[in-house]
Amino acid sequence: xSSLPLAVLEQQLSAQLIxxxxxVTTGRELVMExxxxxxxxxxxxxVPVTAEYxxxxxxxxxxxxxxxxSASMDSAGFQCSxxxxxxAVLTREIDGKSYINVARPMAPKMPTKQDGPxxxxxxxxxxxxxxxxxxxxxxxxxxxxxxxxxxDNDQDDALVLPDGAELITxxxxxxxxxxxxxPTRAFFxxxxxxxxxxxxxxxx
Length: 204
Fold this sequence. Notes:
With 204 residues, the chain is mainly beta. The chain has helices at 3-14, 51-56, and strands at 22-24, 30-36, 41-45, 63-70, 75-78, 91-94, 97-105, 118-123, 126-130, 135-141, 144-150, 166-171, 176-179, 184-189, 195-201. The longest helix has 12 residues, at 3-14.
């Protein structure tokens, strides 16, 4: 990935962020998320982590690991933390690393098929950026299109899809910046590395 296209994309994405928003600079490197049981909030690391670090990390009581994965998008930002419209994104330290509050998940709907996805409605304010030239996987459902947000498409052929769904691909002729709806409907597969599609979104 060349630095110039990414810089252009980040400039376009930043133009859509409001005061107090957070521009994510980890790109498609591995990051991890932590769930705080006391508040119901999910916190994401602002720096890349390794799988070894994730597996060896011992968290304080009340905190649990959500997972570790790479983002599907090239750049991203968060307008605010859940329930904090008009305020700066919340930050905290966990094990000496910086984290931001990115989401508040609702109760999950468990898979109706073996190895199918968990469906979760998530309170978040997430803006995604994809570079021109990318081929993106889209989960198409009768109620709309859901863009890839977590993981890559190496094993998409093996995904067990929800009823009425199909996987399609789109090719980007230009950079694409898209805001997920708030709340966001998210589908997660956890069997062979985390994979997630979220939306619905309007395709370019």
